Amino acid sequence: MDEFTSGARRIRTEWFPAGAGEAGPDELRPGLLLLHGADGLAFGGDRYRLAAGLVSASGYHVGLVHYLDRTGERRVDYATLRENYPLWVATIGDAVGWLARRPGVDAGRLGLVGVSLGGALALSTAASDGRVRAVVEYSGPVPEDLPDPRPKLPPTLVLHGEADRIVPASHARRLQQILRESGTPHEVQVYPGQGHVLSGAAQFDAASRVASFLARHL
């Protein structure tokens, strides 16, 4: 377990170094931060670790950030979500700096992959941090703090279930409109019949899209 400091708090980060991939052993690799949803990593964290391991095996350094450490939570308290949201954005910004300084990481090829709340945080961070070169957003809401109407965002991939009852698919369509109007390179895929967590063929299709997107933009 690695860690960095944000707001005088120690933020744990699980590190998954890049596998061999197609690069040489001494070649710099792109770096990614994986941002979990509101349930945190104490609940269902193994699926994030599995995803991080698979992505790292394909040649990316991956940091799984325990950003809730900033507010001392294991799971998000919705009563204080709006109050804490800017703190988490600041923490992820600090995590980007930490990632850029890691040995073996190409600081010019950094990306964010966020799920649900983590997706919103990825967008908020990328809108104000030019070091982020790509964003993958799974099932996330449109952040309330995005500069309106044309935020400056890096290439963005949006993946969402049409039947999502937690974060309605209307958020993906609204984000698509924002990305189009701001001239941001983007892809949006909404999966019919899928809920908040993609499964089956949709899950595999999404993974394929993520791999292709990251290969193009990082």
Number of helical stretches of at least 4 residues:
5
Estimate the mean pLDDT confidence.
95
The multimeric state of the shown protein is single chain
CATH superfamily: Alpha/Beta hydrolase fold, catalytic domain
Strand order of the largest sheet: 1-2-4-3-5-6-7-8
The CATH class assignment is Alpha Beta
Question: Span from first to last CA?
Answer: 25 Å
Protein name: Prolyl oligopeptidase family serine peptidase
GO molecular function: carboxylic ester hydrolase activity
Keywords: Hydrolase
InterPro entries: AB_hydrolase_fold, Dienelactn_hydro, FrsA_esterase
How would you briefly describe this protein structure?
This protein has helices at 45-57, 81-100, 117-128, 170-181, 200-217, and strands spanning 2-6, 9-16, 29-35, 61-65, 105-115, 132-138, 156-161, 186-191.
Describe this structure in words.
This protein is an alpha/beta fold. It has one domain: 3-Layer(aba) Sandwich (Rossmann fold), CATH 3.40.50. It is 34% helix and 25% strand. It contains 5 helices and 8 strands; from the N terminus they run E-E-E-H-E-H-E-H-E-E-H-E-H. It has an 8-stranded mixed sheet, with helices on both faces. A hairpin with a 2-residue loop joins strand 1 (2-6) and strand 2. The longest helix has 20 residues, at 81-100. It is globular, with a radius of gyration of 16 Å.
Write the layout of secondary structure elements.
Elements: E1 2-6, E2 9-16, E3 29-35, H1 45-57, E4 61-65, H2 81-100, E5 105-115, H3 117-128, E6 132-138, E7 156-161, H4 170-181, E8 186-191, H5 200-217
Parallel strand pairs: 3-4, 3-5, 5-6, 6-7, 7-8
Antiparallel strand pairs: 1-2, 2-4
